[in-house]
Amino acid sequence: MNTKAFKAYQSTNVTTATPEKVLLMLYEGCIKFIRIARVKMQEKKIAEKGKNISKALAIVAELINTLDHEVGGQLSMDLENLYMFIMDKLIEANINNKMEDLDTSEKILLTLYDAWRDVVNNPRPDGVPSPNLQPELYSMYLKSKDGQANSETIKNPNEKTTNAVSVNLSSDVKSGNQKGNSVKKVG
């Protein structure tokens, strides 16, 4: 498939996807760019590393823009703080060539991606999504001294949580308004 045709296919895929699928695509893209940045960092290709970290940062910024704090409440605020933490780690990785910061960012994003994929693919019979979302991830930010997390504070993504959450993923795709995607704690 030639590049022009592939880009047209990708564009169609995004414009016809549900808001939930677009959210998953954002996570997938961000994780992909972090992995490419890691390779470029190892290869000492500084410009390409920076380019891919910049793409990951742009996606995280878009994830922040999808949050609706009025609907999502405290969990939405916690997710925003977690996304800001990821942005800080990506910036540190870019400036200081710290692989650990890329690793931390990827681990958090993978856990969130798995949770959202669970929400999208496994709705409850009553129609309300039932995610295995782990709000405790934010604790890695809160528990760390001076905002710097360490690998011991990252929860195992396979652990079950006791918190119930409700997800509201409404969006007006035609207008491009992604506001309204939110998560709120209900239990």
Can you characterise this structure?
It is found in: Cytoplasm, Cytosol. This protein has a two-stranded antiparallel ribbon with strand order 1-2. It is 61% helix and 5% strand. Helix 4 packs antiparallel against helix 5. The chain has one domain: Up-down Bundle (Four Helix Bundle (Hemerythrin (Met), subunit A)), CATH 1.20.120. It has 187 residues and is mainly alpha-helical.
CATH H-level superfamily title: Flagellar protein FliS
Count of domains: 1
Work out the radius of gyration. Answer: 17 Å
Q: Assembly type of the shown chains?
A: single chain
Order of helices and strands: HHHHHHEE
Q: Characterize the largest beta sheet: strand count, sense, and whether it forms a barrel.
A: 2 strands, antiparallel
Number of strands: 2
Corresponding CATH architecture: Up-down Bundle
**Kindly state the mean pLDDT as a whole number?**
71
State the helicity in percent bands: 55-70%
Shape: globular
Write down the CATH class: Mainly Alpha
What amount of the residues lies in strands?
5-15%
**Between the first and last Cα atoms, what is the distance in angstroms?**
48 Å
CATH domain topology = Four Helix Bundle (Hemerythrin (Met), subunit A)
- List low-confidence stretches: 129-187
Strand order of the largest sheet: 1-2
Helix count, per DSSP? 6
